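Translate sequence into structure tokens.
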Amino acid sequence: MNNLFSALITKRIVATVSALLVIAIGCVAGVWQLNRAETKIALAANLLARQQMPILNANAGPVSLEDARERRMNARGQFIPEAAVWLDNRPRPIPPAASAVSQSGFYLMMPFRLEGRDEMLWVNRGWAPRNTENREALPPVKTPASVVNIEGIVFPHPGKVYELGDSTPAVDTGKPRIEQNFNLGIEAKIHSWSQSPFILREVEAGIDDGLLREWAPLTNGVDRHYAYAFQWFALAFSGFLFWLISGLRQYWRRGVVNGDQG
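Result follows.
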């Protein structure tokens, strides 16, 4: 037993340390992926619970982000299309089943003047595909000119993408605003108006306006995290097996050479 221990470990320090490193990395990364999956599942359960609470009314009075976050909300008012912001590099929330390639497009952020209140509510109206040949050729979208009722779910922001630097948008009334990210504080300073401290992500209501509102569930990607976790644990197990088998083969070869086979 001592000879076996020596052959596997003390005479193979570099191989042992390398194997331990691979095993540690694989196990840590696998556990991290499992935690990511469990976090998404918990967030989705919390979102579902909050959506089952009574529907809020944006026109009834001021509502804080803490009270409204991830809850359903109704609003009545009028869209302000000339102040719209197109958020670039946004993948289609739920790609078509026949397509394995993510399609890039825009989120259309548009202010909504609340009826009976001197307040704006920013609305994520939905997703539209981008023109691959001309970035500034925006997709055709219909915007009602009259007062309408909308329904959605409250979020603190429409989601963020990686952006180099902290750019402040320059408002040019002659061109549509195409931005990477959306900041409620910056919009309030640009327009000097009172606005709700959250955005409303509009839900699908059978409106044919050129926008898609098939939002991906928060559990989207959970299966991928489980698959990644399996791969990391498999890597750790493979590292252990490689270390063990190579050590045993070396031990047996040394036994044959030294005449210990009996």
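Note: The chain has five helices and eight strands.
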